[in-house]
Amino acid sequence: MAVQRVASQQQLTPQQWTQVVIIAGIGTCLEWFDFYTYTQLNATLEKVFFPTNNEAVQALSFWGVYAAGFVVRPIGALIFGHIGDTKGRNRCLLISICCMAFATIAIGVLPTFAIAPYAAGVAAPVLLALCRILQGLAMGGEFGSAVIYISELAHKDRRGAFVATLQMSVNVGMVVATLLVMLLQNTLSLDAMLAWGWRIPFLCAFVTALLGAALRSTMPEPKAFLTAARLAKLRSTADGGDAADKAVGSCDPSTLDMDVEVATNKDPLEKGEEEANGGSNGHAGTLDKIAMITERLHGHSDAKVPIVRLLRNNALGVVLQMISGAFYVTVSWLAKDLRTYGYSLIVTQGVLVVSLIPNAIGLLTGGMLLDAGVPTIHLNAVVVVIGTGLGFAVYPSVGISVAYAWGLVSMFHFIIGIAMANVAMPCTRIYEPLSRTTGYSFAYNCGYGVIGGLSPLAVAAIKANLPGYAHTYAPAIWLACLGGISVVGTIGLMLYQPRLAKPHVGKIE
């Protein structure tokens, strides 16, 4: 393969870093296929692992185990973030896909609760929960690490588009999982699905493990991380030595955020911001004045443990990233909410698959707008406001006709795609390289996991407290709440990191 580890020591050609993006995307696609298979097999797995005459208890047990995979994702973000910030991005991605594959294969060979010949009673759901926890830990480190990896490695003129391409690979994994489950459910009898059919998607992880591990073992390490790690090592060994101090300097940790090719006489952060402004050297604007004020909120710790450095330097940045992306977590529950309107499983699955196409278009559109110089923070706020307004205009009609359902979910997934692209890449530049994976992954998983996990419950609670026809506005009301949270987070990011509100944010190193 053309892309080897040695490539981390030199400038990648366009063909090479395009290949790297594809490899990283394949790994992310495979992991999301493994993770999403569980949700698509809910009707079968409820009977296999949680047999009971009470359907409510059965459903609660299944979704309780499902929730376990979400609850541990922030913990996984800290574990794999530490690996990514200390041992390297590539090692983190390689370990995460192996952990995901192991847990998924294990689910495929688990004994059932009572279905012969492999019955183990209560041990079966316990083992399932443990496998789901391991899946959640791996997922906690996968997506954030992959986004950081691509944002550091890709050419600065196309970072938005390539991070968006990586995000699109999540859609591919979800679509493949959904289509495979639909194929099995429509070709096998119910007895066959309960006996052995449900195992097939999970056992496919054996192939994904071999393919993903083989591809990721060849991926180079980003120069931004290598440079920062070398400077940190020099600084550590130079403590107390005047000569070494002169060689390393006493620069702020934020200035370590650079690639080898920009490590010139000019501070790389200043150079990146000049490029983001089109090379302008005019008078400092309002954002620059705000930057001088908000600089007091940033720490300058050199702690060796990434989470310690993160909390001392960028705790507020973590919170702002969490809430700025609140609106786009609707992608995790919008299609599922259709089942509450009486639509069949095949219809909701079809709506999900089709709606991911406009979502991918929205992602790519948002990424290209970022690369074209559109101020992404401002664009994200506009998109959120438009999406919230459309929610109130369209959502009450969802239950009238399946056509409304198809149109609504597809439209929202397009809007959410633009929002996702304008949050993912810019938020990577909140953090410096040696705590970047930890910070980004932790904030992403807390926001997506906690808010996304609570959303179905929140919508149900709002519906229960609205009279008559008004309950049809419940999802729109929750969308408005998420939109408001996102706008607050967006404004907060503009104040906390003014450089993120400037054009060409992808050029900031």
From TrEMBL:
GO terms for molecular function: symporter activity. Pfam families: Sugar_tr. InterPro entries: H+-coupled_symporters, MFS_dom, MFS_sugar_transport-like, MFS_trans_sf, Sugar_transporter_CS. Gene3D superfamilies: MFS general substrate transporter like domains. Keywords: Cell membrane, Membrane, Symport, Transmembrane, Transmembrane helix, Transport. It comes from the Eukaryota. It is found in: Cell membrane. Residues 20-501 form the Major facilitator superfamily (MFS) profile domain. One of its GO terms (cellular component) is plasma membrane. The keyword Transmembrane applies. It is a multi-pass membrane protein. The chain crosses the membrane at residues 20-39, 59-80, 92-120, 126-150, 162-184, 196-215, 314-335, 341-365, 377-395, 401-421, 442-464, 476-496. This is Alpha-ketoglutarate permease.
